[in-house]
Amino acid sequence: MNLSMETRENILVVKLKGELDHHSAESTRKKIDKAIIEKGSKNIILDLKELSFMDSSGIGLIMGRYKNISQKDGKLFVISGNQYVDRILKMSGLLKIIEAYPEMDTALKNI
Hints:
sporulation; 5 strands; Anti-sigma F factor antagonist; globular
């Protein structure tokens, strides 16, 4: 799992690449949570376009970050465009509560 983060106007942008599974979810969660605290970000965009695999641990990671950021009156958005990840997001019901966009620019305009 490769993880990169940047901040754009109080928005934490997290790009995930590779496999988000039970082997990588915990360390990824800790890094994201640390960045939220250090940067004081109110909103998060998770870019999932380059994920090759995601299991229930990945769904849990997304839900946990959604819950945490919502308690701070923030929002969490996902960038997908990956058919595999889109299917998992739909099947899990995450798209009923989290906004998803195909491109980063679209998400940034809607925050």
